[in-house]
C-alpha cells in the first residue's frame, strides 16, 4: 500500500476530528491537549483549529484509511520560524517512514512561505520520539520548552530548512539556471569514463538541464537521470528522457549501479548529513562500483544567491576533510584533487572512489 498525503482545511473538520481524538487516546503523554478537552468540542472549535493563519494541516491516508496527521504552524511573531504540532501516526503505520513523509511535506510548503526553521517539543523522557526526530534532521536546542507540572521543561528540537529552501531556489529558477549553464560537459564526465566500461549503468544525481547525462550516453553509458527539483525533472521528461525526482536523504536510489555520478550536487548537503548520503551512494552501487563527484573548495558553509535570484545552501570542503568523509562512508581508492579551471571565480574539488570488492550487499542495501 502507498501512503498519500491530504491537505485539510476547516471544511474537513469532520474528517480531522476522529483522527485527532484517536491520537489523544493513543498517546496522551505526547500532547499538551487532553482527550476530555476535545471529545465533546463543538464544530466551531474544530473549524477554528483548522483555520490558523498560514498553517499546513496534513493527513496521511492509506487505502482510504487515515493513518497519521501533523501540522506546521508559522510563528506569528517570527516569520522565519514555524512549529510542528499534532504529530501522530497510527500504530499499524509506524516504522514505515510516515513521520518523515509528513514532516518533509510540511517543510516544503513552509519554505515557500519564507520559513527557515521548524521547531517542535517533546517530553523530556520520550527518548523514542527524540531519536525518531533526530533521524529526520531535528536536533535539540538550548531553548527551554513549556514548563511541566513536575517542574521539568519540554525538550525543544529544531530542523533547519536548508534543503527545502535550496530546492525551492531551483524550482523557481530552473529556466534561468539552464540558460546560464554552458554546453561544455563537465570534466567529471571524463573522470567517470576512465573508471567504468562502455555500457556501464550510471545513476546521475542532480541531472539539472541534462548536459552531462547526454555526454555520458553519447559515450556509450546507460544513465538514470534524477534530480531533487521537480522543475528539472519536468524539463528532462519534456525533452524525451526518463527521469525521476530523488531526495538523496530519504528516497530509494535503486540499483545496484556501476557508478553514481554527482556533479555539483553534494555541495548542497549539510555537512552533518554528508556521511549518511555517501553511505547511501555506496549501497547503491555494486561491489567495485564507482563514485564520481565534485564539490566547492573552501571553508565552512553558508548561503549564496550567485547564479540564481534565490539563495542556495553550500557546504565547502578541503581535500583532507572530503577524503576523510568519503573514506568513513566505506569507500576505498579515494582520490581527491583540485580541478579548478584557470581563471575561474570559484575553486572546485573532484573526488572518485570505489566500493570495496569484498563489500558484498547486505540487509541495508536496497534495490
Explain how this protein is built.
InterPro entries: Acyl_CoA_acyltransferase, GNAT_dom, Methyltransf_12, SAM-dependent_MTases_sf. The protein contains 11 helices and 16 strands. It is of the alpha/beta class and about 375 residues long. The longest helix is centred in the middle third of the chain and has 18 residues, at about 160-180. About 35% of the residues are buried. The model has no long low-confidence stretch (mean pLDDT about 95).
Task: Please tell me the overall pLDDT.
Answer: 93
Low-confidence stretches: none
User: Could you give the order of the helices and strands?
Assistant: EHHHEEEHEHEEHHEHEHEEHEEEHEE
The share of residues in extended strands comes to 25-35%
CATH architecture of the largest domain: 3-Layer(aba) Sandwich
Biggest β-sheet strands, sense, barrel: 7 strands, mixed
| Cα radius of gyration in angstroms | 23 Å
Apparent shape: elongated
The proportion of residues forming helix, as a percent range, comes to 25-40%
Distance between the termini: 18 Å
Tell me the name of the CATH class of the largest domain.
Alpha Beta
The counted number of beta strands is 16
* Class by alpha and beta content: alpha/beta
Superfamily at the CATH H level of the largest domain? Vaccinia Virus protein VP39
Count of separate DSSP helical elements: 11
CATH T-level fold name of the largest domain: Rossmann fold
Order of strands, main sheet, comes to 1-2-3-4-5-7-6
Pfam family, one: Acetyltransf_1
Protein name: N-acetyltransferase domain-containing protein
InterPro entries: Acyl_CoA_acyltransferase, GNAT_dom, Methyltransf_12, SAM-dependent_MTases_sf
Domain N-acetyltransferase: 17-162
Amino acid at each position: 500500500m502507498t501512503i498519500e498525503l491530504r491537505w485539510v482545511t476547516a471544511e474537513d473538520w469532520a474528517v480531522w476530528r476522529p483522527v485527532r481524538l484517536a491520537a489523544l487516546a493513543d498517546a496522551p503523554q505526547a500532547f499538551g491537549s487532553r482527550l476530555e478537552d476535545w471529545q465533546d468540542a463543538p464544530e466551531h472549535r474544530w473549524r477554528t483549529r483548522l483555520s490558523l493563519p498560514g498553517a499546513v494541516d496534513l493527513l496521511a491516508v492509506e487505502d482510504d484509511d487515515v493513518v497519521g496527521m501533523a501540522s506546521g504552524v508559522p510563528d506569528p511573531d517570527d516569520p522565519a520560524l514555524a512549529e510542528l504540532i499534532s504529530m501522530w501516526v497510527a500504530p499499524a503505520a509506524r516504522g514505515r517512514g510516515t513521520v518523515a513523509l509528513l514532516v518533509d511535506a510540511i517543510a516544503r510548503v513552509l519554505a515557500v512561505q519564507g520559513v527557515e526553521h521548524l521547531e517542535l517539543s517533546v517530553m523530556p523522557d520520550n527518548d523514542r520520539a527524540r531519536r525518531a526526530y533526530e533521524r529526520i534532521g531535528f536536533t535539540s536546542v538550548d531553548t527551554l520548552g513549556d514548563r511541566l507540572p513536575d517542574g521539568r521543561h519540554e525538550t525543544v528540537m529544531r530542523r533547519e530548512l536548508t534543503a527545502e529552501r535550496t530546492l525551492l531556489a531551483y524550482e523557481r529558477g530552473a529556466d534561468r539556471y539552464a540558460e546560464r549553464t554552458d554546453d561544455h560537459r563537465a570534466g567529471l564526465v571524463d573522470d567517470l569514463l576512465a573508471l567504468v566500461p562502455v555500457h556501464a549503468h550510471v545513476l546521475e544525481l542532480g541531472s539539472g538541464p541534462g548536459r552531462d547525462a547526454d555526454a555520458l550516453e553519447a559515450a556509450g553509458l546507460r544513465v538514470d537521470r534524477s534530480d531533487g527539483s521537480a522543475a528539472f525533472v519536468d524539463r528532462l521528461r519534456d525533452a524525451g528522457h526518463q527521469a525521476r525526482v530523488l531526495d538523496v536523504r530519504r528516497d530509494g536510489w535503486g540499483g545496484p549501479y556501476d557508478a553514481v555520478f554527482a556533479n555539483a550536487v553534494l555541495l548542497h548537503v549539510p555537512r552533518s548529513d554528508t556521511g549518511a548520503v555517501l553511505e547511501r551512494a555506496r549501497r547503491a552501487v555494486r561491489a567495485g562500483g564507482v563514485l564520481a563527484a565534485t564539490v566547492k573548495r573552501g571553508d565552512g558553509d553558508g548561503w549564496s544567491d550567485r547564479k540564481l535570484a534565490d539563495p542556495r545552501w553550500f557546504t565547502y570542503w578541503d581535500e583532507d576533510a572530503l577524503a576523510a568523509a568519503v573514506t568513513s562512508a566505506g569507500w576505498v581508492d579515494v582520490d581527491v584533487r583540485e580541478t579548478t579551471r584557470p581563471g575561474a571565480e570559484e575553486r572546485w574539488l573532484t573526488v572518485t572512489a570505489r566500493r570495496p570488492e569484498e563489500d558484498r550487499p547486505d540487509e541495508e542495501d536496497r534495490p
